[in-house]
Amino acid sequence: MSHAAAGAVPAAPGAASKGSPPQPVFGPRLAAGLFGIFLAAMMAGLNNRVGGLGLVDVRGALGFAQDDASWLGTAYAAGELVAMPFATWFAITMSLRRFHLAMLCTSLALALLLPLVHNLPLLLALRALQGVASGALIPLLMMAALRFLPPPIRLHGLALYSMTATFAPNLAVWLAGQWSDQWHDWRLIYWHIVPLGLLAVPLVAWGIPAMPPAPARWKGGNWFGMACAVVGLSLLTVGLDQGVRLDWLRSPLVAWALACGLALTALYLFTEWWHPAPFIKLQLLRRRNLWLGFTIFVGLLVVMASSAALPAAYLGAVQGYRPLQSAPLGLIVGLPQLLVAPAVALLLYRKWVDARKLMALGLALMALACWLGARLTADWTWGEFAWAQVLQCLGQPMAVVSLLFLATSVVQPMEGPYVAGTVNALRALGTLLGGALISQLVAVRGRFHAEMLLDLAGLSGRSPAAVIDPATLATLVPQQSLVLATADGYRVLAVLALLLIPLALRLQHIPAPTIAAVARVPATPAATVPSSPNV
After folding, report:
1. pTM value > 0.85
2. If you average pLDDT over every residue of the chain, what do you get?
3. What is the largest CA-CA distance in the chain?
4. Taking a C-beta distance cutoff of 8 angstroms, is the pair 308, 170 a contact?
């Protein structure tokens, strides 16, 4: 087949298995349904991020200890990661509209219930269940975009999906500040998604076409592998999310969680490779733009922590900022995505644009933003981060949308559900990994700089004129060590962004998609697809 247009073409007549429904005609009704799926995916992203940012207020209102309350974020992240590899399979089996509405309504019902629960074990269970329901919504956005959007606007669907990683996390900072600092009602941290979800429900119900379910698929599912994945991915989440707090392998819980999680996840992947009807098709990773693109994607998610996690942590610890005071940083990056991401998609349709070079430019801008951030001092407020955030605003969509185009362009439309599940599982895992790596780096470098500063203070103290008051020293050393450690974090992320550039240039070149190229793409024989995606 022609890799140049495979990911940007409609399903050819022969590309579907026997019994598959015809390709729906794109029009206002289907556009409304896709917009509902987009709103639901944004709701899921906000639910995750706002819940984490507002955890301090939830803990204070309910009287939970800090260590106990930290498991609320872990429970949600575990549920989200567990759902992502399997969401598209269940959407095909139950029909996209039915499964999406079930997950959306479940997430909304739990959002209404959560503020009324004051028992921590029950709250953990409900938050994990909400993570499963919300986590299933994000892969369905990519699946629907690849399935329903015609070639002239399909890249804009990928741009909408990219906003779940660039728009929602940054807007969440402002929203968390509004609910906790402006409205002074911690319950809105959970309830704020309800209006958005209620708007998405009728749009999806009316706009997404009714497709018949495929009950025969239930008998052929890789249920043993799924059981291994559910336990394994949950344990990996526990290990990564609690590792910094519990000092990694010095904690038996973290050590066993990581070891067992890796073993069970590896067993799941082994069963998926050999299963005739897998949830995710690992054989697709033989294609360079997939295995190399997914590797870059994980590194890119780590680098993207420089636009949200690092400045927010610094401002909160050094300047005492609440989320509302840090909100301008998120808005600088998040709000322009409504224009920048579609603009990047338009560029990718131009014949003279090489997606690999556009992606490299985005990574270079992110690296430059990190170098600017590495100049920070203890006097910085949010205004000093503004130029770095502007560079992030431009660089992130260039890198993410270009990468999604290069990766999805080497798969047939029938393979879209497999790619959507894999991308989103890696996205959830990469976000966890990035948070753990940055937190550990700042902690380790913070201890190093604290020791160096104390040694310097000890040497200076030998001179009576340079004696530092112990109270001043107790305040100054932690502050300055955190500033230096955060600067080190920025430098490491800048180097990582630069290292990703040659990898991006090694991806296979994909020309801009055209309607004429679509007509030349041969149909994929039905026998190459193990199951029919009746979405």
Report:
1. yes
2. 87
3. 88
4. yes
